[in-house]
Amino acid sequence: MALYEHVFLARQDVSAQQLDALVEQYKGVIEAHGGTVGRVENWGLKSLTYRIKKNRKAHYALMDIEASGAAIHEMERQMRINEDILRYMTVAVEAHEEGPSAMMQKRDRDDRPRRDGDDRGPRRDFGDRGPRRDFGDRPPRGDRPAREDRA
Questions:
Q1: DSSP E strands: which ranges in the chain?
Q2: d(CA 50, CA 47)
Q3: 3-class DSSP state for residue 36?
Q4: Contact partners, residue 119, CB within 8 Å, separation at least 6
Q5: 4-26 pLDDT, tens digit each
Q6: Which of 39, 71, 81, 107 could in theory staple to 33 by disulfide, Cβ–Cβ 3.0 to 4.6 A?
Q7: 43-54, pLDDT tens digit by residue?
């Protein structure tokens, strides 16, 4: 038996109870083929980067699966038929990770290192910089002499 992580996206108008029913349905398919489903995480309703089948949001769910390839194939076949499933992805893994997945871990924005490698702390406040100076050798608009070559 191989180890898999399976993520699927369900339509935005599916309720939480219907999402749980979908998880139980696919869990039953895996168990009917001799596999087991470990951790199941509901990541909630999230915005999609682009529309998928006219949906702007989707419910995300993750399942840790230990099953044969035939069981995964049958589950994916049933997902292709189901209109409530927008997308799915199954990835073979060496071992299931312990604890919550990266999506479920709460991280504070300030705790992450900055992309540019600068760890001086938060950005400085420059305050009021004063009036903007004029660039170039033209005087400000109000002080320009009138054009004499107008007809």
A1: 2-11, 36-52, 55-67, 85-93
A2: 9
A3: strand
A4: 113
A5: 999 999 999 999 899 999 999 99
A6: 71
A7: 889 999 999 899
